[in-house]
Amino acid sequence: MGKGFVKNKRKVGLALAGGGPFGAIYEIGALMALEESIEGLDLNDLDCYVGVSAGSFLAAALANGIPAAEIYRLFIEGGQAQGALTPELFMRPAFAEYGRRARTVPAIATRAAWNYLRRPLARGPLDAFAALGRAIPTGVFDNQAIHAYLETVFSRPGQTNDFRRLRRRLYLVATDLDTGEAVSFGRKGHDAVPISRAVQASAALPGLFPPVQIDGRHYVDGALRKTLHASEALDDGMRLVLCVNPLVPFDAKLAAARGRGPQGHLVEGGLPMVLSQTFRAVIHSRMAAGLSKYRTQYPGRDVVLFQPERDDGEIFFTNIFSYATRQRVCEHAYERTRRDLAKRAKELAPILARHGMRLRHDVLADPHRRLPIDFRRRARGGALARAASQLQGTLAELRRHIAAA
């Protein structure tokens, strides 16, 4: 290690926001760039992990000791290595919910018709049959498959589906549907629930997935309250919290001016484009407000955010429903995060140094680096890791000299 670089006992946390399958894909690429480019950062050896919605999948996997490279191989490449999940698990129809709601239709319709016939002038037919809304399914897709899959993954040797048996703190945030309050699974009083079930609850986006019942309460997506919930780590005394947020509102005007997006207006993309931009704007403004409060509520702490640029059309207009597209998005996130680290090097250097880390400038300067990366060569704390790092830097320098010759 270089002069002045001392590895100490730090209190470092990771907070991952949501964003559906796309959010998880972006975060995988960003996390791989961070771990590769920051010396002293081991994503499986942090003190605290916080996950919300799609971020809960990755937080739970990392806290369980599953390397980012393994998650990449399964999620992006579709391999068979142990990891988090495949995006197809998000898309299974909620047949059980459809059937349960369908069975209520005859009784509700009969009661509504009877009420209308008794007093036809008191209420119109639409008022009388408004109760039929109770028969509408609460979710389109079945998130039970997500719980079942993760339960299997976290039951393998060396991993656990029990918050209380983890070596590191893990908090997965969901929203209590009946009170609107945020609940942090993993904290005392909420740590008996299986990790897989907590992930299912945290990612239960209303309308897409049915609420998840746990101990008689119903829970939905944790992002309804906050975007990041980084305060969960700060409340536990973390001195540095690394945050990844995959969703930002798209600045079409800026993108067009820089030649990075289509000419025209987002409204031309129809309702999906309008809803996407609206959702991104709401959660991003809320996150910015939260980060601003952290500076006054937690003095002396460092909170570092990584997210896409607002004129990044590659991110905003992507189609993630093919493996080829998913791999491209993940690689794009990896490369953009590397550029972000290099661009903010002067800002980040003193922050990282306070926590026993530093940027690996040889890695950031290497234009040939691509995904996937094999992090097994960076065995924790071993001489092999240091030797491999030095060799990698030497090879990068050699490539640059050859290219310049």
Radius of gyration: 23 Å
- The chain-level structural class is alpha/beta
Segments where pLDDT lies below 50 for 5+ residues?
Answer: 1-8, 79-84, 375-405
| Record field, number of beta strands | 10
> How much β-strand is present in the residues?
5-15%
SS field, number of helical segments: 16
The ordered H/E elements are EHEEHHHHHHEEHEEHEHHEHHHEHH
Mean pLDDT: 82
- What is the general shape? globular
What profile does the largest beta sheet have? 8 strands, mixed
Helix content: 40-55%
Written overview of the protein:
- The protein has 16 helices and ten strands.
- With 405 residues, the chain is of the alpha/beta class.
- Strands 1, 3, 4, 5, 6, 7, 8 and 9 form an eight-stranded mixed beta sheet that branches.
Brief characterization of the structure:
By secondary structure, the protein is of the alpha/beta class. The chain contains 16 helices and 10 strands.
Topology (SSEs and partners):
Layout (H helix, E strand, L loop, with lengths): L11 E5 L3 H18 E2 L8 E5 L1 H10 L4 H8 L19 H8 L2 H14 L6 H4 L15 H10 L15 E8 L5 E4 L9 H8 L9 E3 L2 E5 L9 H5 L4 E5 L7 H6 L13 H27 L4 E5 L6 H4 L6 H21 L1 H9 L4 E2 L1 H4 L18 H22 L1
Helix pairs in contact: 1-2, 1-3, 1-13, 2-8, 7-8
